[in-house]
Amino acid sequence: MSALHPICLAIATLGFMLLLRDLKNSKDRALVLLSLVFLSSALSYIIALPPVWAQIDGVFGVANISVPLAQSCVMLVLIFQTAVVAYWSFPPAKARLCAKLFGAVGAATILGLFVTFSQIPPDDFAHFAVRDPFYKAYLGIYICAYTTAQTYLAVKCWQQSRRSPNAWVSASLRIIAVGAVITIGQSIIRAADLLADAFGSSADSWLAIAWLCGDAGALLTLLGYFLPTLVDRARGVYGWANDHYVYKRLGPLWEALYAATPSIAALPAESQATALLRLRPVSFSLYRRVTEIRDGMIELRPYLDAETREEAEHRHNARGLHDPDLAAAVVAEQIRAALVSHSQRWTAIEPAEYADARVRTSTTDEDKKLLLRIARYFTPPMTQPAVTPHT
Predict the structure, then answer these.
(1) Domain check: are 172 and 73 in the same one?
(2) Residue 390's pLDDT band (cuts 50, 70, 90)
(3) Cβ contacts of residue 48 below 8 Å, gap of 6+?
(4) Which of 183, 201, 236 is the last residue of a domain?
């Protein structure tokens, strides 16, 4: 067993586990097929484990039956890989047609492997000796199917890498293409061994390089399929963690506004501790928090004093702040002063605008970032009554 096999097994298993969560409600055929790429690849490496290999042979009572089983899993990998690339390259109708064609060819190849395997003397097969004509047929079927599929992957993935606007996807497709080209080296050497035998010679001295090409190429193609999945999950984890961070950082500002104007919260705030313990996202709760903070700021508009804004603008300008930090720092002071005035019912004669009115926020995400800046400068007033919302 090659030293690269455990690495490939780990990548394939992790790739399948990362996609498993999305399969339940997914209608994306490419995603389902990609998960099957990882699953069938993992199975091929599991079967190749010496203890598993021996156990399978013992169960079936057939020497080396694990070889065609493992190589049938490799054929499944190729069927699913080529089908994935077809869904990435063609319209759905054409992709489905290609996937069916690849499946039919793959099924015929697997059948051919088992039929020829059943006719090979166990000793010849155990030593991978190119002596028996059925072994030559077995190897020829495998090489032809493997080379054709890898050539298709190399060409299509390289073409798609030039069209993809996503840098990670483009890089991954190039890795798959390079891996596919390297694996073809194994096919060339094995085919040369068959040809050499026809002339009474042998290419056995090159077999070590053939196995290296196969293992290194398989590792690269797996990495190529795995990287976008890993990046997508990493972005998901970052988004989950960032939402929890922003939700927590906005807490003091929201609590102060909620204490003054409880009507801004139509529903009780979700417990963030519970969400963290259950690894649940707080994206909806964060959206509500952003909306409720803005609603609370609207409620405080009658208490915005123009003098407070002018003094804050002058002071923070002198500190060297510039928008959007300048506007955020001024708004934080405006809210703090307005909360004091609200608690004492002192409305402004001519209410001022919030300083962040001059900062354009065209999306909810941009508004969230601006509120986070405001929260960074905000300190609740000492005169405000305490409140203990569920946060």
Answers:
(1) yes
(2) very low
(3) 1, 5, 66, 70
(4) 236
